[in-house]
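Notebook B, p. 112. Complex prediction, attempt 2.
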Amino acid sequence: MSRLQLRLVAIAAVLLVAAAPLFLDPFSVTLANYIGIYALVALGLVLITGVGGMVSFGQASFMGIAAYSTAWASALMDYSPWFGLLLALVLTGLVATILGAVTLRLQGHFLSLSTIAWGLAIYFLFGNVDGLGHFNGIPSIPPITIGSFALISSERIYYLIWAVLIAAMLLSHNLLNSREGRAMRALRGGDAMVESVGVNAFRIKLITFVISALLAALSGWLYAHMGRFVSPTPFDVTRGIEYLMMAMVGGSGYLLGAVVGAALITLLKDWVQDFLPLVAPNAAGQLEIVVFSALFILFLQYARDGIVPFVAKFLPQVRRERPRAVEPLPRRTQPEPGQTLLKVDNAKRAFGGLMAVNDVSFEVRSGEILGLIGPNGAGKSTMFNLITGALPATGGKVVFTSSDITNEPQRLIARAGVARTFQHVKLRPKMTLLDNVLLGTYARTQSGFFKGALGLDRAEEEQARHEAMMQLERVGLGDRPFELAGNLPLGNQRILEIARALAADPILLVLDEPAAGLRRQEKLALAKLLRSLRDDENLTILLVEHDMEFVMGLVNRIVVMEFGSKISEGEPSTVRNDARVQEAYLGGVA
Amino acid sequence: MTPDIAAILALDGIATGAIYVLMALGFVLIFAVTRVVFVPFGDIAAFTALTLAALELGRLPGTVGLVIGLAVLATLMELYSILRAGSYERIPRALLFYLVLPVAIAGLVWITSGTLWPMPFRIALALLLILPVAPLLDRIVYRPIADASVLLLLTVSVALHFALVGLGLLFFGPDGARTESLTDAMFMLGNIPISGQTILIVVAAAIFCGLLYLFFDFTLLGKALHATALNRTGARLMGIRPERSGTIAYLAGSVLAGVSGILIAPVNTIFYDSGFLLGLKAFVGAIIGGLISFPVTAIGSIFVGLLESFASFQSSAFKEVIVFSVLIPVLLWRSYTFQHTEEDMDE
């Protein structure tokens, strides 16, 4: 299916939504209104749970804050519902920011648990604050008016609800395909990699969380003015998990999953409410929640991905176009060869009582390839982590291009021009090769969330895609840019990491065992690539490697570590003849 | 607030806090061994209280039906997976643990119901009856997805909690219950009255903390559990079966939930859905301990109890709000003391 056909399908769907009230009975229109309102909340959950990998049980309480804000403003204070909307968004955003700020540095389940506690607290707050109607709620909320047109009937508000939903989906769609959206999609699977390409993972998580709260707020505003009445009950934790269920059943990795899930659960609920009293006339209420919870557990056990990806398997794939050749992204000027680029000065790192790196000093000069070698456990990877900021140093100094980067956050070191690969490959297996490499361009591009969502980033995005494609071709993976990274063999995954690092246009390339798992031919190709990076582009490379043949034929100089200390340094031939190095590798000479 | 009132509130808070300690330790225990945040823990405590109340009135507790239902379901699932694996020699053992033992306990309660036994016997019966619930839920709900991410397991837990609340209403009905006090003794410390109940709660909590400590540090089984908590794969390589460790953790958790339910039953009126709030407050304690540390968890839970006690004196309508709001500074402190590991999130 081509992009044009896809657009036509989307337009047809929108037209169908627009025409629906003409042939639906009033009850079905009301049902469709609820579906639209719930889908907005579920859409927020798709962004935070499906895309960002964080689970929130508190979306209903965000909805509640918004509904109560607008109810207070419009029903009790006689302001316009539009002022209510503003208040709703501001308050919800504020609460979400505070909650996110205190939980998002911790592991995921802390956020989830606090959303439960927070959801309960909010419920009791609504029920007990004087002036908000206690547990009886606030009645007679005015309808939304556009000019002098009041959206009283459910057919009228239908158009507003679905217009908001469709707009929110379009913006989210744009956002996910933008620079920040890629960072959002890369959050799943740990912070180390995203930080290494210059992303502030905490910031991305926080903004994602706030966006999802704001979507819930929009929904709460619509809910309050549709039902014209609010009480604490629709915003308790039970509802929170219902919304999560909608997003997950629909397919939490897909925007469309929100709508499909909301529709399915709403209709199912409607049906169950009709059906259960026939089976168990006395216990229908209790059974409903048991049935839904049991269904959700079964779903989570056996069909976690949801409906949309399941159906999508049977639909024709959308053809993706290779990036076009456009003007490349601006590049850094590499420093003159032979200068001191990186200076490690008495670096120390202790793990408890173990000195993994003990007083190591060495220099990397621009335009050279420096090999860091040593037996297993010598502290090479720890040294790498100190240089790239993945671990804080216990003592000593690391200076890069004459600025002190000791204990700077990883992302700032990355932005200064240090790009790295990992000993244990860190890619996003469910993203394409191209997307993985595009992550590398993050620090070289600027478009933020707004530009991304509104589609104003297209020119820069084209440039970034072109850059990523060039790097893929350069490392020899250019033939299938839309393959999923997880489908590559390990050796090629290492190469893909190098392409990602190159896409950052680094000054210093730091490679942690790049040749591990590669076959001989692949190693030769890699050596050739690294050599051409040095000779043709003046790129400086620091690498840890165990394959001596690979190292000796490639590097300009070698630093040898053993038990956390440097034991030798110099050109390959000198190091090879160093007695201490021979002893470290081969044991003492008898 | 006079010093006397403050002292009474503090005593009350310590007693409630001690109950939270038991529950929070249960959370930490189960989470550490199985990575499951066992949200239904509070529900199990509430069910124990309701069971005891029913026994006191000489009625058949709803728990009997619940246990039998769960046992049948768990047995069917276990048999299915045994048949699929073709390892028929495991059938007798599975039948014994998943069907015969739980149903025997339920049967015992069934037969003896109607006669009014002395209190210690009733308590023992209630504890015995609640014991299989958590391990059976583990078999039915968590075992099929034991390797899923913490977040997925948590989502399942929350869903399970709501299922149990529904079942609770079905089995126990909407009425609340409060059991007879365990003791009517009363002591005076200066002019501050201390009830025997309070002392009993604190002593019981202390005893169980001590037992837990002895179990973890001085028994092979405890060490196996500890090993599973630290590294599942490593433990498996040492011949420890994580499933078995899980079952033991759930059994220990059941005991803790049961004891806390019995301790709270004479103090508060318990409804079928009271467990969630109790559990969540204990959670706040567990979060103070980072879901890792047993001693910090205990201190945190006592703190939550004290906070709740003073908050309900100041403004009883907002006590839940106050207790849960305390999470915010706690989490803030946690997020700056938290040590990131390189692989801190699962796909």
